[in-house]
Design brief:
The chain is α+β, with helices and mostly antiparallel strands and about 160 residues long. The protein has one domain (about 30-150): Mago nashi protein, CATH 3.30.1560. Helix content is about 35%, strand content about 30%. It is built from four helices and seven strands, in the order H-H-E-E-E-E-H-E-E-E-H. It has a seven-stranded mixed β-sheet with strand order 4-3-2-1-6-7-5, with no helix packed on it. It starts with a helix and ends in a 6-residue tail after the last helix.
Length: about 160
Amino acid sequence: MKKYYLIFIFLLIVMSIGFYLLKKEKVKISDEEILNSNNIVLMFRFSNMRSSYYYIFTINEVEKSLKSLGYEDEVLFETDLDNEDISKIKNAIVSNRVNTWDGFDKADNRVSDGEMFTLDLKINDIKIYANGSNSFPKNYREFKNKINEIIKKYDIIN
């Protein structure tokens, strides 16, 4: 009987470790790669019942820009990004662990008039996609606030 008890305990431990590893955040790209990258496209959309915002940050050898898009993806505003903005974007991605958000897709259907977001991020050849409706990945609010700070610099958000 003691033998079966030990086998059972061993299996529980192995299963617990397996579940932990499955649940653990999966990092697709390192912080260093993000901070050193010169090929980033961040598409970030968030909305609520009153308003909707859609921004595209493009950072590459040819273009360093911020675009604000409207209904049917018409360009409402476009400007160049300076090195300080680029650094802030990269730091916002790294400090808020956005590279772990890939695959986040949750909705809280109990709320009928909350906030929704979509994030589509490409760094080099790595793609990260996340979206939610009244449900957000860890550090979402902090990331959104840092992005809004950059956007407010151009006076294109309330």
